[in-house]
Design a protein that fits this description.
Elements lengths: L7 H14 L4 H15 L5 H13 L4 H41 L6 H12 L1 H19 L3 H17 L4 H15 L17 H14 L8 H12 L5 H13 L7 H33 L3 H6 L1 H20 L1 H6 L4 H16 L4 H17 L7
Helix pairs in contact: 1-2, 1-4, 2-4, 3-4, 4-11, 4-12, 5-11, 5-16, 5-17, 6-14, 6-16, 7-8, 7-14, 8-14, 9-10, 9-12, 11-12, 16-17
C-alpha cells in the first residue's frame, strides 16, 4: 500500500542522497530509487515503478535520470519532479566540474597528468563491458536475430567511423524496424549543426547527447568524441579519455561527461550550459509527458523503434572502443588497457574501482618518472 507523499524537503534530501552516493551508473541508480520509493517508503507500488522504468528505456537520453524525475513528479507533481531531478543531478555535476578544473588546468602537476592518463587508458575496456552487459536482454527481446545483428553492426560501424552522424544511424535503424513491422515512421530529426564552433556548437553537441542518444549511458561517447576532439578541437584525444573516465568515477548520470566537454570549450559557464542543455530534454519528456508513460510502454510503434535503435546503440557502444583505444598515446597506457580488460571482462571488477586503481598506478608511475606523460 502506498503511503502519503513526501514533502519537498524530503524529496530534496532523499534524491540528493542518491545523487551523492550513486556511483556505478544506471543499475545503481535504479536499485537505489527502487529501494527508496518501493521497498522502504512504499511511496510507489512495484508495478508502477517497473512500468515507469520500461517507459524511460523507450525514451532517448539517460534513463535513470528520467526515472528519478518521474518518481519525484509522481509524488509531488511538476515542482517535485524539478526538485528531485536537480537534487539527483547537481551533486555529481558539481564534483565533475571541480575535477575538470583540476585535470584541464593549463599546467597540472605531473602526478595529476599521470592519474588522468592511467584512468583514461581503461575507458575503451569500460565501453566494451558496458556494451556486452546490454546484449543478453536486447537479443532475447529481438523478433529477428538477423535484423538485430544488422542494426548492431550498423551502430558499431558508425561509432567507429562517422561519430557525428551516429544519431542518423540510430534513428534510421529504429525507423527501419517500424517499417518492417508494417507501420509508418514519423521522425522529425534536426540534421543541422553549428559549423563555426562557439556556444551554438556546444549547445548542439549537448542537445544530441540529451535528446537524440537512444541507449543512454555510454552511447553518448561516440556522439561527443568526433565533435569535441576532431571537429571543434575543444579537447585532445587524451583529454577526452579523461572526460569519459571522470564521468564514470563520479556519482550520478554518465551524461555528466558532457559538462567536462563544455568546461573545455568555454570554462565554467560552458560546463553549466552543456549540462543544462543535455538534461533539459529529460525534464521535458517527463514533466510534459509523464501521464502518458503507461500508453508509451505498450505502444507498438515505440516498441518497434526501440527494437531497432536499441541494438544499434549497443553496437555504437562497442564500436566506440575503437576510437577510444586509438586515442591512447603511450605504450604503458595500452598495458593498462589490457589490465582493465582483464579486470572488467574476466574478473568482473567494478568500473569505478578499476578506473580509480588505474589512475593511482598512473599517478605513481608519473610521480616516480618511471614513464613519460604528455
Amino acid at each position: 500500500m502506498e503511503r502519503a507523499a513526501p514533502s519537498l524537503p524530503a524529496i530534496l534530501r532523499e534524491w540528493g542522497r542518491i545523487g551523492c552516493i550513486g556511483f556505478g551508473g544506471p543499475p545503481t541508480h535504479i536499485a537505489l530509487l527502487r529501494r527508496l520509493c518501493v521497498d522502504r517508503r512504499h511511496w510507489l507500488d512495484a508495478a508502477e515503478f517497473e512500468d515507469a522504468l520500461a517507459a524511460c528505456n523507450l525514451l532517448p537520453g539517460p534513463a535513470s535520470t528520467q526515472l528519478s524525475i518521474y518518481c519525484a513528479w509522481r509524488l509531488r507533481g511538476p515542482v517535485g519532479g524539478l526538485v528531485g531531478g536537480l537534487a539527483f543531478i547537481v551533486p555529481g555535476l558539481v564534483l565533475i566540474l571541480a575535477l575538470a578544473a583540476v585535470f584541464l588546468a593549463s599546467a597540472p602537476p605531473l602526478w595529476i597528468r599521470g592519474a588522468a592518463a592511467g584512468a583514461g587508458a581503461g575507458v575503451a575496456a569500460v565501453a566494451v563491458q558496458a556494451g556486452l552487459s546490454l546484449v543478453p536482454a536486447s537479443r532475447a527481446r529481438a523478433r529477428s536475430r538477423l535484423r538485430w545483428a544488422a542494426y548492431g553492426l550498423a551502430g558499431g560501424a558508425a561509432a567507429a567511423t562517422v561519430g557525428p552522424w551516429l544519431v542518423v544511424v540510430l534513428l534510421g535503424c529504429g525507423a527501419a524496424e517500424i517499417v518492417v513491422r508494417g507501420r509508418t515512421p514519423v521522425l522529425g530529426v534536426p540534421l543541422f549543426a553549428a559549423s563555426t564552433g562557439g556556444l551554438g556548437a556546444l549547445a548542439w553537441v549537448a542537445f544530441k547527447v540529451g535528446a537524440l542518444s537512444y541507449g543512454g549511458g555510454f552511447v553518448i561517447v561516440p556522439l561527443m568524441q568526433a565533435d569535441a576532439v576532431h571537429r571543434y578541437h575543444w579537447l585532445t584525444d587524451g583529454q577526452f579519455l579523461n572526460a569519459v573516465a571522470l564521468g564514470q568515477v563520479t556519482p550520478g548520470p554518465v551524461v555528466h561527461t558532457v559538462a567536462v566537454v563544455g568546461y573545455a570549450a568555454a570554462g565554467l559557464g560552458g560546463g553549466l550550459l552543456a549540462a543544462a542543455v543535455a538534461f533539459s530534454p529529460s525534464f521535458a519528456f517527463v514533466l510534459g509527458g509523464g501521464r502518458w508513460f503507461g500508453a508509451l510502454r505498450v505502444n507498438p510503434s515505440a516498441r518497434a523503434f526501440l527494437d531497432g535503435a536499441g541494438p544499434a546503440a549497443i553496437g555504437a557502444i562497442l564500436g566506440s572502443a575503437i576510437p577510444l583505444a586509438s586515442a591512447l598515446g603511450t605504450w604503458w597506457q595500452f598495458v593498462l588497457l589490457g589490465v582493465a580488460a582483464v579486470a572488467l571482462l574476466v574478473l568482473r571488477r567494478g568500473v569505478v574501482a578499476t578506473l580509480v586503481a588505474l589512475g593511482a598506478v598512473g599517478a605513481l608511475l608519473a610521480a616516480t618518472h618511471a614513464v613519460s606523460v604528455s
